Amino acid sequence: MTILNAVDKKYSVLILLRHGQSLWNLENRFTGWQDIDITKKGEEEALHAGKLLKNEKIDIAFTSTLKRAQHTLEIILKECGIENIPVIIDKRLNERSYGDLEGLNKSDTALKYGSDQVMIWRRSYDVAPPGGESLKNTAQRVLPYFHKTIAPKLMEGKTVLIVAHGNSLRALMMFLENLSPEEIANTEIPTGIPRKYVMNRNLQVLDITMEN
Fold it and tell me: Where is the active site (predicted)?
């Protein structure tokens, strides 16, 4: 794809970023809707992301109601020297619910239920873990919010930063990149690494870059 000048306001920029490493990421536990903060490494990842984004003129930021995403965003904005931009917090950007699995160690859960079953719960598109959400369920709350609240900002030529979670971002990436359920199942989103989309005013993606 052709690299475009992000300051050309014929185009808009959307930056997606998964929060820095959380305590339960470190402990290999299912987190979901549990409100777990980031680790020291997570803070360092957020700081690094801020350094990578210093040249972006971020106009508005969106994040979830969970502290690991909000803490990451706070560090990024401080490192970028960004003050007084709108920061919108909404539960529809929260991580998918893992239901009965939340708090359980992933390796122990695989021993109990079988690694194949756990992988289906973790990565399939439309199979939910017991008491939780599938990626399809997550997309059903993320995408309407994106279209109603975030897309209009992009259509104005804004640079938008979303700091959220692995699965809420996977739902959005699936839409933006036109990925199949099979393709999204194999998509990994690392913590603290910005993914930048340059779009035209019709929200057609013209360029995708990973900053690291």
Answer: 19, 95
What Cα–Cα distance (Å) separates residue 195 from each residue in 61, 86, 110, 131, 175?
14, 20, 30, 31, 14
List, as residue ranges, the binding site.
18-25, 31-32, 68, 95-98, 106, 122-123, 166-167
Active site residue 71: no
Residue 146, domain extent? 11-210
Largest CA distance in the chain: 54
pLDDT in tens, 50-106: 999 999 999 999 999 999 999 999 999 999 999 999 999 999 999 999 999 999 999
Structural domain count, the chain: 1
Please identify which of the residues 45, 56, 95, 102 carries the catalytic annotation: 95
Does 2 map to a domain? Answer: no
Any catalytic annotation for residue 95?
yes
Q: What is the number of residues in the chain?
A: 212
Q: How far apart are CA 98 and CA 66, in angstroms?
A: 15
Q: Which residues contact 152 (CB under 8 A, 6 or more apart)?
A: none
